[in-house]
Design brief:
Layout (H helix, E strand, L loop, with lengths): L7 H12 L4 H8 L3 H10 L8 H12 L10 H11 L2 H4 L2 H14 L1
Helix pairs in contact: 1-2, 1-4, 2-3
Length: 108
């Protein structure tokens, strides 16, 4: 079975199979893919009656992109974020002191 993402041609074959009234299992066998891949693809992109291969391919490309650039961890920022976001009961507890010591030793 091929690994990786569905190609534009795979999506067109899925649409053709749906138009011919074929089952997900039969479409998957013809593509040499798992049945779950085909059913998820169709379900994610409008269902069997409204599946459009071009629109599905564009949506998949959009979903595959990273939303934000990766950042290197900054413990000082993490420390201040945790302090603001956690409830006051957590701030005064043993977990906070333990976490604060770990961050302080890592920051230097």
């Amino acid at each position: 079975m091929p690994e990786g993402r569905l190609t534009r041609q795979d999506r067109q074959r899925i649409a053709a199979g749906l138009a011919e009234g074929r089952s997900y299992a039969e479409i998957a066998r013809r593509l040499d893919r798992p049945t779950s891949t085909v059913s998820r693809e169709v379900g994610r992109n409008g269902g069997p009656s409204d599946y459009r291969p071009e629109r599905a391919h564009q949506a998949a490309a959009r979903r595959a992109r990273r939303r934000t650039p990766a950042r290197s961890p900054n413990l000082t920022t993490a420390r201040s974020w945790k302090w603001k976001r956690e409830p006051s009961s957590w701030r005064s507890g043993w977990a906070c002191r333990r976490w604060w010591r770990a961050c302080s030793s890592a920051c230097g």
